[in-house]
Amino acid sequence: MQESESSKTEKNTFSSGSLQLPPRQARPDDLVGRGFREAYILHLADTNLILAQRNAEWCGHGPVLEQDIAITNISLDLLGQSRNFYQYAATLINASKIQEDLKAPSPKGEGVGGEVTEDSLAYLRPERAFKNCLLAEQPNGDWGQTILRQFFFSAYQFLLYQKLQTSNDEQLAAIAAKALKEVTYHLRWSSEWVVRLGDGTEESHQRMIKAIDELWRYTGELFIAVDYEVAAGFDISLLKDDWLKKVTAVFEEATLPVPEKVFMQTGGKSGVHTEHLGFILAEMQYLQRAYPNAEW
Amino acid sequence: MVTEPTIATQKIWLILEQVSDPEVPVLTITDLGIVRDVRPLPASPERGGEPGYEIVITPTYTGCPAMDMIAMNIKLALIENGYHKIKITSVLAPAWTTDWMSEDGKKKLKEYGIAPPYSRSGDRSDLVINCPQCNSSNTKCISEFGSTACKALYQCNDCKEPFDYFKCH
């Protein structure tokens, strides 16, 4: 952890020590060389993985059996998507020669340099290397807060994948086109639940108000681009209006207020997280770190 | 791009038609449209100088945990039939859709007690789903998510039987 912290700035940009300084304005064909493409795909993978892990915490604890199954189904979809992204990222990283810092630290303690895999990327990277959005790592809270987190995220992911499926990166486009079908369910399901709880009882309404207070501040980050998103050549801030339209429409039906100006927390996408991520990783990575190379 | 079938690849397709889906065993992987192509591979050193076949499959849902098992079952079925040089490739595009499910598959699903996908993908799934037991259209959706990623949970208001609906996807 310390090691990655001290060289954080260096790592966030995945810049290479052995290549010439990258040009200021990245062209698409520079992306692989500069590590931005890998970083971008890792960001997508991490966000999906962390939210999948959070939703999976409900397994066996859902308010009713059907919804327990629903939230864990969503978790499984997100996990599958993260696997596709990690596998793709691993292929790119292994093919490039410059990301030594990302190469898997050998579980036997021989240092870095091995081939990375989807598993090493998920289980052996420290907190500061994770690029997930802050929203994904926020605690489940009550059912309402989990629902609201999923709704905010699905509304964003729906718009994002619509764009990504037209990407000139064919693998990215294929992953997104496939995942979009799944996200359509997630968005419909979570929208219906926001309405049910917001326009439900006094108690459920109050809980949704509290959930909005907790989570709204993490929604701004979704639309504020970091370096690798800028390099991807698509302006993520352009999704914000459509996202807000969707949220406003659902909130209106749910009799919930859309917050006015709120200070927005950022940092997750560049590895600066809330205190919650470390705990998630401690639990999620424990087995691989305690029993290296353990397999099912 | 599907390879033009030859007598040799058609034999492979016939074997694949016998491989059932681990989670919905009444369906075969060809009923589901999981097998996208069968391609002959030329003899090469990596195959011990022998020719082989490439089987191209695609997952139903991204997170479908059955994919590894399906790949293994394909290998086993082909080995049993004397095909040893097999390469299995998984592709994501074009994304799998229930539009690829065979009519025979839909019939088998219904007989098994699972309401088949009723129409083309992209349509809303909250339209009328008929009960696979009594054919009543008086049914309700209990949950959009069921025991596997591909199913939703419904209940018939007439015969009261709960049932799975294979979602249009």
Description of the molecule:
Chain A is an all-alpha fold and 296 residues long. Chain A has 13 helices and no strands. In chain A, helix 4 (36-56) packs antiparallel against helix 5 (65-95), helix 5 (65-95) packs antiparallel against helix 9 (170-198) and helix 8 runs antiparallel to helix 12 (240-253). Residues 1-33 and 104-111 of chain A have low confidence and may be disordered. Chain B is 22% helix and 24% strand. Chain B contains four helices and seven strands, in the order H-H-E-E-H-E-H-E-E-E-E. Chain B has helices at residues 7-16, 29-32, 67-80, 103-112, and strands at 35-44, 50-57, 86-90, 114-115, 139-143, 151-156, 162-166. The radius of gyration of chain B is 18 Å and the shape is elongated. Classes of the chains: A mainly alpha (296), B alpha/beta (169).
Please tag this protein with its features.
heterodimer; A: 296 residues; mainly alpha; 59% helix; globular; disordered N terminus; B: 169 residues; alpha/beta; 3-stranded mixed β-sheet; 4 helices; 7 strands
Order of helices and strands of chain A: HHHHHHHHHHHHH
SSE pattern of chain B = HHEEHEHEEEE
Q: Average pLDDT of chain A, to the nearest integer?
A: 86
Q: What is the terminal separation of chain B in angstroms?
A: 21 Å
What would you call the structural class of chain B? Answer: alpha/beta
